[in-house]
Design goal:
The protein has about 160 residues and is α+β, with helices and mostly antiparallel strands. Helices cover about 35% and strands about 15% of the residues. It has five helices and five strands; from the N terminus they run H-E-E-E-H-H-E-H-E-H. A three-stranded antiparallel β-sheet has the order 1-2-3, with no helix packed on it. A two-stranded antiparallel sheet has the order 4-5. It is globular. It starts with 14 loop residues before the first helix and ends with a helix. The N terminus is likely disordered.
Length: about 160
Amino acid sequence: MQQATQSGSVLWLKNEDIAAKTRMALTIPHRGVRPYGVSLLVAGWDINRGPTLYQVDPSGSFWAWKASAIGKNMINAKTFLEKRYNDDISLEDAIHTALLTLKEGFEGQMTEKTIELGVITVPSEEELAAAMAVENEGTTRPKPTFRRLSEEEVRDYLAM
């Protein structure tokens, strides 16, 4: 679920950023106006929906995707993702697919200094089942965690 902008950086939003996005939408006086000219890919996890990925364009329109790309060469990147992505993809394969997708439109050398990768780790089926069984007792639900891969980890994935 890693995606990149034209510069090769990965963009993730925290809950606080959702409020900022809402304020941005409220400042658009007319539909179709491009006040900021920014497209976003917002990734997350929900206990009911599981992994989610949304693309938001400058007009405020949004679409849900399983895998997507924005920026330079996005048509080729989306075609590549359509061929490579499936619902049962492993984390290793997903990271490798994301890197191959980035390479398609990346200008210059891809190194651990020029890209960032993030991973959302979700609770296992057993953790979810246990949480649902005791949810009424006031315990907290298991939460997904976001982790940005270190430069060493990115270097290792690029060497594959």
